[in-house]
Amino acid sequence: MSALLSLNNIWVEYGDKVVLERVSLDIAAGSFVSIIGPSGAGKSSLLRVILGQEAPTRGSILLDGIPLRPECGPDRGVVFQRYSVFPHLSVLGNTLFGLECAQAPFTARLFGARRRAATLEAEEMLAAVGLGDSLHLYPAQMSGGMQQRLAIAQALIKRPRILLLDEPFGALDPGIKADMHALITRLWTDYALTVVMVTHDIREAFTLGTRVLTLDKRRHDPHAPHRFGATAVYDLPLTRKKRAPVSAGAEASITLDDVRNN
Amino acid sequence: MRWVNRRIARGNGILLGAIPILLLALVYLVAAAGRHAANPSDKILPLPSGMAEAMASLLFQPDQLTGKLIFWADTFASLQRLGLGLGLSTLSALLVGLLLGVLPPVRATFGPLVTGIAVIPPIALLPILFIAFGLGETSKVMLIFIGIAPFMIRDVAAHITALPREQIAKAQTLGASSWQLMLRVALPQAMPRLIQAVRLSLGPAWVFLISAEAIASDIGLGYRIFLVRRYLSMDVILPYVAWIALLAILIDLALSWTSRRLFPWAHGANH
Predict the structure, then answer these.
(1) CATH of A1-75+160-170+194-245, one of 3.90.950.10, 1.20.1260.100, 3.40.50.300, 3.30.420.280
(2) Most buried of the four, A39, A122, A187, B23, by CB within 10 Å?
(3) Residue A104: what pLDDT?
């Protein structure tokens, strides 16, 4: 299988502190890569490098064989643990934003027939993540789980080549987390996504991923612990898991209970 | 129950808030009545009747020289200067603050200049303004502008700079250019903060307005207060000060209402 994303000998250094060293990876299209590792092992740094939020100190990253610019772009979607949605836009506005940026370079707003078409597309996307009934809520009125659903819909409407998740379900309680796992698995299948997810939750990493990467330091100098960076120490393909349709239970919409803790 | 946990109902809140104001008024009345008992022509603490009498001529009788109703002409002139000063400051805070906040090269280039201007005491610039713009309206409006705009610019810029990096990254993954990011992400989120900055600048703006009017003017609320001071006319000064306070409160309430009306998302979850 050809590699969608390849990292060649990536180093990330902050001053004389080496965070990542010699990271070389090929990520195949359609895979779901979970990245785990202890705190401070550079999981988030790796994700930021792939996202383009930071440039690696050394090494190159190719997406479809083309070097990535060290800048975020619409070919990579992202969902962070927090602050992923715009507080001043409604659910619909948040989802429309990506379409408006692409279609209206100057005003970044759509009107008339184009707006109606974009709204239809956004509503379809929101229905797919279970927010079909919450189009006009603002993020502050929604629970953490709903905000993450919105963040996913917002990212997926741009049809990114690769979806990056930075501890997306870390702040959610266990019941909601299970719902979100079902959702992301279904979306991964339905939209043929390639996903890279950073997580603290080992169980989550193995449940969702088709491949689990562990970042840690191979070498350790007790007198200068910052001089060696982390790299991928385990790279486990979970071959038994294929892109399979998820079992029922992933209904198209969620219901809100009285305390809105969904 | 601990005092930190006491919640005041709305009705009681109005009552509690009114008590000190009424007490102060009462103390004033008692003191004024005392002085008038000793000297019926006392000017220092005029009675309400005296104030009403003095104000009536300013409110309802055209001035012999200009033919204007002095109180209303003063109010209009002052509000016009204040409005122009605040309007210019708000506009520049929005434009400059947005550019400084969103674009690092602009921030690096002009940030130190704005900070430098902000630390100059504006009154120290008043002579320069008088020399540069003359003694007319321009110098008064410019004093208000120079007095409050740097603070507002820095406040708005700092607020935009403090937007979560995740949000900026997210917008870019959704395809936003620098311009679109400014227009759709930074600008709307700066607006409630801008209104907040205007509210905070209202006090200093009045200070600069009254100062400018006191020094060189022939009309305006500040001018009138400083003019009648020569005749110890407390019966005019006190109603004018009360009127200024009332205007300031009304402007503040209007701004607060506007912000909650236009930007409900910025004012808590229950909108």
Answers:
(1) 3.40.50.300
(2) A122
(3) 86
H or E stretch at A24: strand A17-28
Query: What span, in angstroms and rounded, lies between the C-alpha atoms of B183 and B163?
Result: 14
Are B260 and B267 in contact by the 8 Å Cβ rule? The answer is yes
pLDDT at position A262 is 47
Angstrom distance (rounded) from CA B136 to CA B243 = 24
* Contacting residues of A for B185, CB less than 8 Å apart: 86
Interface mutation vs chain B, best among A101, A110, A157, most B CBs within 10 Å:
A101
Q: What is the mean pLDDT of residues A95-121?
A: 89
Chain B environment of A87 (Cβ under 8 Å)? 189, 265-266
Can you give the residue ranges of every domain in chain A?
Answer: 1-75+160-170+194-245, 84-158
Q: Residue A76: its chain B contacts at CB < 8 A?
A: 173
Distances (CA, A) of B221 to B52, B76, B212, B234: 17, 9, 11, 14
Residue A89 has pLDDT above 80, yes or no: yes
State residue A73's pLDDT score. 85
Residues of A in contact with B266 (CB under 8 A): 87-88
pLDDT of residue A249: 41
Residue of A108, A83, A87, A111 whose CA lies nearest to A97: A108
Q: What residues contact residue A227 under an 8 Å CB cut-off, 6+ apart?
A: A16, A17, A18, A221
Confidence of residue A242 (pLDDT cuts 50, 70, 90): low
**How much is the pLDDT for B210?**
94
**Cβ neighbours around B142 below 10 Å, total:** 24
- Global pTM value: 0.85
Mutate to test the interface with A, among B174, B183, B270 (most CBs of A within 10 A): B174
Residue A141 forms contact with B (CB below 8 Å)? yes
Mean per-residue pLDDT, A121-136: 88
Average pLDDT, chain A: 84
- CB contact under 8 Å between B264 and A138, yes or no, is yes
